[in-house]
Structures are given as C-alpha cells and as structure tokens.
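Our collaborator T.R. sent over the components below with a one-line note: 'Predict the complex.' Nothing else. No constraints on interfaces, no templates requested, no preferences about which chain binds where. So this is a plain run: every listed entity goes in together, and whatever single assembly comes back becomes the starting point for the next discussion.
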Amino acid sequence: MRLAMALALFVQVAVAQVTYERLLHANKEPHNWLTYHGSYASQHHTALNEITRENVGRLKLNWVWQGRSLEKFEPTSLVVDGVMYFTEPPNNVYAVDARTGRVFWSYRHVLPDVTYACCGKVNRGLAILDHTLYMTTIDAKLVALDARTGKRKWEKVIVDYKQGYSMTVAPLIVKDKVIIGPAGGELGIRGFLAAYDAKTGEQVWRFNTVPQPGEPGNETWGLESWKYGGGSVWLTGSYDPDLNLVFWGIGNPGPDWNAAARPGDNLYTSSVIALDADTGKRKWHFQFTPNDAWDWDAVQTPVLTEVDARGEKRKVILWANRNGFFYVLDRATGQFLHGKAFAKQTWAKGLDDNGKPIRNPDQVPSAQGTVIWPGVQGATNWYAPSYSPVTGLFYLTAWEDYWSTYYTYPQQYEQGKWYAGGSVKAPVPATNRDEVNNKRAKSAGYGAVRALDPKTGNKVWDFVMSDVSDSGLLTTATNMLFSGNREGHFFALDAATGKLLWRRYLGGQVLSSPISYAVDGKQYVTITSGAAMFTFSLHDPE
Amino acid sequence: MFRAQCGACHGPGGAGGAAGPDLTTGTMKRGNSDESLFQIVSKGIPGTPMPGYGASAKEIWQVVAYLRTLSIGKAAEQAKGNVERGAALYTQHKCGGCHELRGAGGWLGPSLDNVGAERSIGHLYAALREPNSDVAPQSWRLRGKTKAGAAVMGVRINEDTFSYQYRDARGLHSVAKSALSEAALVTESAMPSYAGKMTEAEMDDLVAFLANCRVGGGR
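Returned assembly:
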C-alpha cells in the first residue's frame, strides 16, 4: 500500500534494541539480564566478577523500590543497558533506573473483579524483544508494551479466563515468537504451550499439554479425564539454538489428588517436553511423575549444560524435581542418563534404568489420609536453581524432611471451581507472606541451599536454614552464591564450600531469584523481599 | 450530571438540542483545552444562555472528562480531508522525526499509533495549529549541561530533589542534579506550529490522516 511505503521512508533513529541476536548471545553481555532466566541455558550464573569472596563485606544497600501490592512478589527483573524492567503483582509494569531505582514509567493493567488464579495473583516477569516488553496477565492476556514509554502497543486474549485459566509465566522469546502458556491446574483447565508472533500477537503454533482425542498421548487419560486434565504452564522454559528445541516443564494433572479419576500416565503432565521452536512439534518428552497423585508440577527451570554421563560428555538438562529426585537427561533425545533422590522421599523405591519411578504402592493419597515425603510443595519447586561452570556444581533450594498428609475424595468438575479431588495438611504453610514468623516443630523439616555433583547426584554441601525457603539462587564467576529465604534474609555463600560470607536482614519473605548486572562498570545484585526490591553494590570502606 | 443539567439545552447525548450547540464535534469554538472547558462549565459563557455551575472542582473536572468522551473515537468519521494526501504531508513535513508511527520514527513526541482513537478532531487541529496552547507537564523538556560539558536534552519524565529522569532518542536516562552545571525546564512545545505552513485544505488532509491512525484499524 502507498501509505505503508510512505512511512517506510522515515529515518530510523539508532537506539540500541534488544535484538534476537543479543538474546542468543546474552552471555556476551553479563552487565545485562536480558531474559527471565538470564540466558537461554538458564544457569542463573553471572560472569560479573567485581564482587568477590574477599570484598563482599563492603556490599551495601543502594536503593529500595517499594511496591504497593499485597500479592506475593515473585518477579525476576530484566536489565537492559542501565534500565530495569519488572512486574508488580498482579500486572503492573515498571521501568526504573538500575543505578538509583528512580522510576521512568509505570503501566497498570486493570483486571476484572473476579479472576481465577489458584494461588495468588502473581506474576513472574517480562520478556523483551527490540523495543517491546511482553507480559502475561491473570485474565489470560498477552500484553505488548513500548519499553521506552510504557505505552501499550496491543493486547490479545489468549484463552477465556472464566474457564479457570490465568497466566503468571514470564514469556520466552525465540526468534520472532513469544512463547507462553496458562496456569490453572487446580481449576480443571486443559493446558497448552503456544507461540505468538511478536509483532502482531497472532498465534503461530500451539502444543496441547493434555492431548485431545486424535493426538498422541490422549490414550494415557482414562475415563475421559483429559477434558479437565490440567497440565499448566507457569514457569519459563529454556532453549537450545543448536537443536532449535525449547524445553518446558509442565504442571500437575487434575484433579490433583484423585489419581483414580484419571487412570493412565496422564501425558504430558509432570513432564518436561522438548518442542521444535519453529513448529511446536514434539521432539521428545520425559515424564518425571507418571499418574502424579501429589500435585508435583514439573515446573522447574530446565538447566542446560554439558557433563560426563554414561562414559561420555553429553549435552544435558539438569533437573531437580518437586518429587524429590534429581535427573540428568540427554537434551537431544530426552534419554535418562542418571538420577537420584536429593531429599527425603517415601513415594518411590528409586528410579529404574529409564528414569521411571519404582513406586511404593501404599504411598498415595487416601480417604483417611496418608503421610508422604516430600510434602505438597515438593522437595523443591519453581524458584531458580543454579549451575556454576566454575565449580561444576548444581545448586538448589531444598525442603528437607518435609511431608504432608494427603487426602483424596471424589469430585465433579464445575467451571471456575477448585478441582483438586482431595486436600492436604502440611506442617509448613505454602507461603508465609504476612509476617516473618517461624514457630514450626523440628519434625516439620527444614530448608537448605544444597550443592549437588551433577556427575553423580551426590550432595557436596548443605547450608541449613531454620525455615524452608522459596528463594532462587544465583552463582557468580567469583565462586559465590546469592540467595534469600522465607525468614527475610538475603545472603552470600561460598559456592565451593557453602560457608556463609555475608548477610542482610530485609524483613520480608524472599519469593524470587536474585540477579546481577552492571552499569558504568559497577556490579549490582538485586533481590525482592516482602513487597519491595533491594539493590546492593560494593561501597568504599568508610 | 450531564443528562440532568445539560441535556435540556445540549440534547441528552450532547449532540445539540433546542437551546445549546452540538458538543460532540470535537471542536469547541470557545476553546479546546481542558482549562478553557473548565472555565466554561464553572463560569458559563457571559452574554449567552450557557450558565455557570458552582459545583466542586472535582465534579467540574469529571464533567470536562465526560465532555472529552463525547467526541473521542469519532475523529475519523468527522474528518473531511483526504487520508492519502494527508499521509504524503506527514512524510513531507517530517513529522516522523519526532513521532513514532507503526514501528518507525522518532520519539521526542508521543507515539501517534492510536491518536485517532484517543483524541478528538478538535484536539488534532489544535495540536497542529497551536501546539503551545496546552503543553502537558509530561511533555516538558529538560535542557541542561553536565559539569563535564555534555548537553542534556530530553523529555522530562520524572524528577525529585536530587535527580531528573528523561528520555531522548537514545533511551531512558537518569541524571543527578549535582552532576549538572545548568538545568532548565522548557515548557514550550518542542513541536513547531504548522499554522500558515500549509493551506487549510492540506491541514484537513493531515488531520484526516491522523484521525485514521488507530491501533487495529477501526475501533
């Protein structure tokens, strides 16, 4: 059209954009944090090296950003050339100066009065491509904002939220596509992972995480149970550009605790799926917990690296699952290489040579209640683990010796209603955001930052905490590990030994993963606590 | 309030009635700015039947906001010019140097992607003829110099005791006031007036083009 041609003549002002090329090579610019997991390999590791084990004592507060929302504050920020972008729950977006915290702009997404988030109206963060930021919303929309002005470019309804869907995941950009999926595993949804054109929001491909009749895997759902089968998507996946595969962890089957209502393995719930990034076609899948009866979403970060396994160097995914086992998978084929329990668990006797659990038949929810390890929140959950190429170790936040009593009862599906087929009693609350208060019995278990050797799955060290923790981890090129915890602390450990190097009390539950970035050559670390965000850097000795 | 107090003269939907003019055209002949509408509603128009209303400032502003909605979204149907010719004028006058439209252009001025849906036709004419009449504080510009001698120039988007936040063609910036040797806020519009720089017919064409700048076509 003439009009479009006329517009194309404008001189484009040269502003540094976040091209796909930059996302692909995010590790070449460690001063930025360009994707939710920091890079496509999702190692939660920074190459920045100003802050060291020797000088960490000089780490001091730079600024605090105060949120106003009473919802759980779970975002991981993006940092692009000195500007930090993040979400405040439910769906507000902020751009702030990464050195000072001063606000450039904010955006407010207005939600309908009634929405259907299972566990709080949370949001985990943003994706950026060129000058556009992408956010999913509790009312199941995809919103595109201009990163320079905070103005909305467009928004698309992804799925009808009234049927129990919500969206909390930070999108993943691959090439010119925005990859997202819905939450709602406790509300009888039918999950999917789908890619949308980054310019227009039009759907490019969609993969049903609960296959419909005619699709492979539908036969793993007895009694027509696929209809409300869950299989939610609420944590960002990883991407291997050489294989052109995205790896994504899929949520639990529904109803959560009544596995008898859905005889079969219930593919692709509680699994990792590997999809072709261009077409959404499945290359392979690996199911951690077939016929999951405990609500153990495989919603963990797929950590990509290379390790020696079964006698040769392999391109692998490291995966500490909510079900208490640590897995090493070949990422080209999905082949199970080895695995091992990393925390106390009683539901399986172990894993067979294909990585399938050898189940303890009596360790399932029952009408009168069954005590099972790990408890409902799992031996770990969605908060980020880390892999350090410096130590070669894998780190995670573990809930050790933690159990629940699992009950089951029959339940009919009703639209927009909780559809879990049972209930649980746990000695530890799922989250504890009102106050930082810990009066648990010792028998309720405890939290630990745990280092594993990915070659064996053996524990190398533990940093034991009084309470459990919902904080992710960050390792550094200088052999440090940053994390926070439910008690309200933010701390640094020696990544080689687990020894405490530094800590600050921030007074609010940490529900996110730390990041690190640099502006004008100065390194910063950022963490959330309570409803606020805190940023630290080295200060000169006084 | 509108239906009860104003409808009798201006018609229930504001489209003109027995004793008052049409308020939905998007061009108020007594002044288009929010401020002048506020004055008209609160003080009336002396020498005409239009009465003043002694309501609270908050209520008057609500009425002003409501008056705005009467004409918003109608600019495209009200425009009388030629859209294609308007597009050519947009290019000829290099509006894209300051405005982003459909993914291209500068960004000293606001994006015009959805301006046809968000603004009345009167506002569009006023923006071109008298950009200085109603410059909102969010369009004020910071003009300064750092102690190191570098020029600072951009739209001031936030400020506190110690710093300015502004955006320019390179992106978003924060600068400490202590780092500046000179700083002033420019409250005049960065946009030149186009009154007299084109014929009235051309102005109509350009406004018709702007009125049709809407996200997702018509809405």
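Summary for T.R.: Chain A is about 0% helix and 35% strand.
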